[in-house]
Every structure is written in C-alpha cells, then in structure tokens.
Amino acid sequence: MMPAVVGQKFADAEALVRQVVSTPVQARGAKAGGVVAPEHGQWEVCSQNPAAGAAVTPGTAVELSLVAPGTSCPAAPGASSKPSAAPKSPSTPPPAPAPTTARPKPATEGPTDGSTGGSGAGGSVYYKNCDAAKAAGAAPIRRGQPGYRDALDRDKDGIACDK
Questions:
Q1: What is the pTM of this model?
Q2: Does the bond joining 90 to the residue before it have cis omega, within 30 degrees of 0?
Q3: Does the pLDDT value for residue 3 go beyond 90?
Q4: Domain ranges of the chain
C-alpha cells in the first residue's frame, strides 16, 4: 500500500516509498516547469502519485511533486504561483489551503466497465487521448499508473503522453 508522504521532506518520503516499491522514485517540481534542484532531499512533497493508500506493486512507478524549502505548494500540481493583482486586506486571514495527495480524477470517457481500453494499465481512469490526459494534469502517465494504456504510449517506453 502506498504510504502518505505529502508534507514530508523528499528524503524521508523516498525512504518510506522505497519500502513498498523497487523502482526509482521520480521527483519533479510542483510548480510550472517541473524543475527540481540536484540536491532536493530537503524539499517538501506537495503531491504524490499514486495516492496514499493505493495498492502498489514493487514495479509501480512513483512520482512526487516538490517545492523548495520556504516555498508554498501550488493549489494544483504544475500550477504557477503568481501573486494576486489585488492586495489582501490584513484583517482578512487567508483561506486555509486544501490538502492535495493526488491529481484530480478526470471524468471518464470511453469504457465504463472499469477497464482502461489497453494493456499495461492500472485503475479505472481512462483518457480518450493525450490532450485529455494533459488537460486533467495527469501527463506523463507511467505504466502501472491509472490511465496508462499502450495506445497513448507512442514510443513504447512505458511513459504515455510524455511528448
């Protein structure tokens, strides 16, 4: 079962994840651009895929989205953090951020029998094409992750919608 690692430092989260999977843990920047520094062990995990509690196998691909120390997590994975045009009133406290542990589940398209319409897939998420996966914030999709299917993996490298 996938451990809950959101809010932890990458080094600690990676150690927990490595107890249940044998594949390398993928780190990416949580903000637009997806870039992380070479030394990102102390960066905070903003979201994880697969979600906490999901069934995983030793070969499951795991991706953790991170932010640098002292940086807040974006409202959605991959979102930009641009300051608001209007200043906030000091008497109004900012709203508490909603915790995020996984990408939002897209509306299903296509098969409704729980299948994903292809081989090598995990879960019951179905994306009609890579544009739909990208619009849902799920791309790239690795083999074994919800929504992956061979038809979306043009170069057959185990990563769909990566180009």
A1: 0.49
A2: no
A3: yes
A4: 10-67, 103-163
